[in-house]
Automatic annotation (TrEMBL):
The lineage of its organism: Bacteria, Pseudomonadati, Bacteroidota, Bacteroidia, Bacteroidales. This is ABC transporter permease. Belongs to the ABC-4 integral membrane protein family. LolC/E subfamily. It comes from the Bacteria. It comes from Candidatus Tidjanibacter faecipullorum. It is a multi-pass membrane protein. It holds the Pfam family MacB_PCD. The keyword Plastid does not apply. One of its GO terms (biological process) is lipoprotein localization to outer membrane. It is found in: Cell membrane. Residues 28-241 form the MacB-like periplasmic core domain.
Amino acid sequence: MSRIRTEFFIARRISSRTDGRSNVMVRIATLTVAVGMTVMILALAVVMGFKREITAKLVGFGAHVRIVSLYSQHSFETEPVRLDSALMADLAALPRCASVAPYALKGGMIKTPDAIQGVALKGLAAGCDTAFLHGSLLRGRLPQLGGTRTKELLISENIARMTGLDVGDRVEMLFVDTSRPVRRDRFKISGVYATGMDELDDAMTFTDIRNVQRLNGWEADQVSGYELMTTDFSRLDDFAQQAYDTVFAHADQTSDVLKVEDVVSLNPNTFDWLRAHNVNAAVIIVVMLLVAFLNMVSAMLIILLEKTSMIGMLKALGMRNRAIRTVFILRSFRIIATGMLWGNLIGLGLALLQQATGLVRLNSAGYILSHVPIALDWSWWCALNLGIPVVMLLLMGTPAQAVAAVKPEKTIRYQ
């Protein structure tokens, strides 16, 4: 029988014959590993969920990068820029550019007999990326873009609830401008959407870009700016810099002075808040590892004390300290593996339940989203399941050193 098989056989025999205090401590250690694994899975799933959901929604309502007039402020009233087909073609040719589309923005109010709700009316051009709105659509359809101009409007479920409107209803909108009298216009509700991001759902409505151009008194080639989407969000800074370089190269070909803004620079507080979640997740992982390690050490020391005579006998038969340490590290591995198995089952089960039902709700005023988001990904899950046992086994090498202190002549003498 090979040495490794001998050590494995002895470790398995210890596992099957554990009793008394050591059995209780083994169960506590296994439970601790299971709870720690569950908490770590849920913590990472929630952190990644917040990052993914909030980023996707901010990008969905806007874009990864937008190009607007230098004189436009962060408001619903924007300075128009001239459509530049050459600039759009060069932007579309950038590496990792998914789409380029013009848009127009106008602030207004939805007026019903019972309510008045301030909103932003965003005009979309034919060919723009509408995947986000399609994915958020609850009922009805998106407004018709391109072709014959229609006065269709997409509103959120929050706005529909506050105003009593629904698909097929006609609604009057008011538009106030300091330079002209109050304008009135009527739209037909084509669809209702919901994203769960109440702050934006309460304000954003969508229609054909030509409706917004007409309300702003703009010509057909005047827009609020351009929206760019990239295929690689992790390299957003590089993409934004390339867009800036392209705009700068066209500066002498247009009278418009443009600026380039990315979604991170437009929402610094939100992304700083998301980055702070990384620290929270790291603290949780370290604390859970520390608690699991301390319980594992307690279990290991009790097992060593109860198996002192066995250790002395193995030494008397010629087994080296290193081999005996391997026996107890293999015993630890079984505890860790059992705890991790249960932790994965419980953690993934709870995560999938929340993902499917949205059972745990949030106050959107404080957390932006209305429910706890979950994002399960093989990359961090595999890293967690490979990293945790390696770290734990490395740490368990320290208490296993107690084997060297056992003297066979003393342990056998008193048997």
